[in-house]
Amino acid sequence: MAAAAVSPSAGTGGGGGAAAPSRDPPISRYKQRHDGNLRTRLLEEKAQTEEEEEGPPATTAAAAPSPTHTHTYYYDDTSSGRRIRGGARLSLRCTCTRHMPHRPHLAQLRRLLLLPCSSVPVPVPARRLSSPRAMASSSVSAAAAAAAQAGGAVAAAEYEDVMGRLSSLITQKVRAHSGNRGNQWDLMAHYLQILELEEPIARMKVIHVAGTKGKGSTCTFTEAILRSCGFSTGLFTSPHLMDVRERFRLNGVDISEEKFLKYFWWCWNKLKEKTDDDIPMPTYFRFLALLAFKIFSAEQVDVAVLEVGLGGKFDATNVVEAPVVCGIASLGYDHMEILGNTLGEIAGEKAGIFKKGVPAYTAPQPEEAMIALKQRASELGVSLQVAHPLEPHQLKDQHLGLRGEHQYVNAGLAVALASTWLEKQGHVERIPLNRTDPLPDQFISGLSNASLQGRAQIITDSQVNSGEEDKDCSLVFYLDGAHSPESMEICARWFRHVTKEDRTVPSSVILLFNCMSVRDPMRLLPHLLDTSTQNGVHFDMALFVPNQSQYNKLGTNSSAPAEPEQIDLSWQLSLQRVWQKLLHGDKGMNNTNSSENSLVFESLPLAMEWLRTNARQNRSTSFQAIK
């Protein structure tokens, strides 16, 4: 299929394919090669580079041309708080439908730049490669601009340094799981002592939630309810989409960059000073959990809502000895190589967060899982109750902030957790009288305003759906972090539900898919495909893309490779073969000409450019991309 047509953005002052003004830097090399059915071109630009930053974070800027025509280009990633310079070498890779001028307009470069990006294709308007523009100058404004640029450059460099240090902890993951998990987990006690967090954690009013599916949504609902009731809140969830700061919310807002850096350095320096070969630096997730404890204790939140990272018993968040209440979201088969091969074994690991005398709630579970949960609760003297799914009428004609029928299960668990927390804190007057009556207004407000990126989220692409030229184009992303067979089915049903009313124009449904290599695609893709087919959804194309964090960890200085050929696409090609087999049987596994119904892209930006190009070329068709 055709790929990535070039079209400048509105306001760039150039038409699609128009040559750039003479001030554009020269293209030093231009070469073309063929990849199967995709024609690809690699453009490399060389220019002298300076680093510049001005204005609020959401804006982009470029230096005015000097008499020697030296320009400044940088990629503005406001979500991760860093600036990536583009001068010495910009490597761009695109799939084209027409010849590209040797001096492309900067808007074209911006649209085709191999941008470091997250594992979920959330369109971020602030991400741009700026084009040169004239800047009014005076001695006063120049001095102010220089000061702002210097301060911004320092802040950006510091944030990138922090991201690099966090990345260094990822490499320790294998070592952490190579031995006994219990012995490794015992290191958390040493870390807490080093950071002087034992007492602050003991005083913290914690709600602790484990589970396979929906634990992040449950935590989000719970935090939103209590915040709506007037309490200051801290929320720790995982993973993040664009910026690691998303994992830490204070009163419903991602922690500021300033506070994040402050608490990061406090923890990092203390741990670096006291750790050694016997007590090494904590692994990535453990460090983030420790950082969350520091943030919430220092900010003196009324309630801290903690989502378990993996399992429960040996999770880094399980250092909380006396939470106010615990919750178990829906259980299923996941991380079986660590947690066990049966639902009973998995449930036993999740029940590791139960504490003696601390009340606990669970979403409705399969019988095997429920037996294991009840057994562990009985051993500890825990009052374990089933939290029934919320009924729509309890919301008084309002809707949940997180969409999807399955969210009523998570909301029901959140209501039980928030109610118990309120009761334990002496706020009985705010608790719902019974589980069938309409909820109090503060509960409804919290549930309806809850938000969490990448969970049953719908995003209209701003680059395609805005502007006079694109008024007839439509590209909508339907995002969900489904990662188990059950959640794949739920995702398929959710997509059908939210799109069933929008059948006034022809639509093209595209699957944009990636999963980590530790997961079995034969346990995921069949559930998605079968459930979609049963609900009348048929995919016109499947796009497989790599996990950008393989080479762009956390948005750090480990940016995209200079040569796209360095990207290992073997896993994505394996996913494509699985998809072909599901569609065509064994013949599909050996189909070398599979571009009719599936494609492999080297990055998310390239896949998104392909989607945008097709949306513009097929104006009578509404493009719906499910991720």
TrEMBL record:
Any GO BP: one-carbon metabolic process
UniProt GO molecular function: ATP binding; metal ion binding; tetrahydrofolylpolyglutamate synthase activity
PROSITE patterns: FOLYLPOLYGLU_SYNT_2
Classification via InterPro entries: Folylpolyglutamate_synth (IPR001645), Folylpolyglutamate_synth_CS (IPR018109), Mur-like_cat_sf (IPR036565), Mur_ligase_C_dom_sf (IPR036615)
Pathway: Cofactor biosynthesis; tetrahydrofolylpolyglutamate biosynthesis
Basic and acidic residues bias locations: 33-49
EC numbers, comma separated: 6.3.2.17
Chain intervals for the UniProt region annotation (Disordered): 1-80
Enzyme superclass (EC): ligase
Entry keyword Membrane: no
A cellular component annotation (GO) from this entry: mitochondrion
Entry cofactors: a monovalent cation
Keyword annotations: ATP-binding, Ligase, Magnesium, Metal-binding, Nucleotide-binding, One-carbon metabolism
Catalytic activity of the protein: (6S)-5,6,7,8-tetrahydrofolyl-(gamma-L-Glu)(n) + L-glutamate + ATP = (6S)-5,6,7,8-tetrahydrofolyl-(gamma-L-Glu)(n+1) + ADP + phosphate + H(+)
Biased composition (Low complexity): 1-10, 56-78
Family: Belongs to the folylpolyglutamate synthase family.
Protein's UniProt name: Folylpolyglutamate synthase
Gene source species: Oryza nivara (Indian wild rice)
